Amino acid sequence: MDLRQLRYFLAVGEELSFARAAARLRMSQPPLSQRIQELERELGCLLLDRTIRPIRLTESGRILLDEAREILARVDLARERTRSAGRERIVTIGVVSEAVAGFLASLSTHIRAALLPRHPGVSLRVRVLGITSPAAGLHTGQSDIALTRLPFDTQGIATRPLGHEPLVAAVRSDDDLAERTEIDAGELRDHVWCQLPLDADPRWREYWLGNDNPSGRDHGHTAGPVVHSLAEYVQSVAWEGAVGVLPSSVARLYPAAGVTFVPLAEYPENRLVLAWPTTRADQVVLDVVEAIEAAVAAHGSAFFR
Question: Which of 132, 192, 217, 233 is the most buried (most CB within 10 A)?
Answer without folding.
Answer: 233
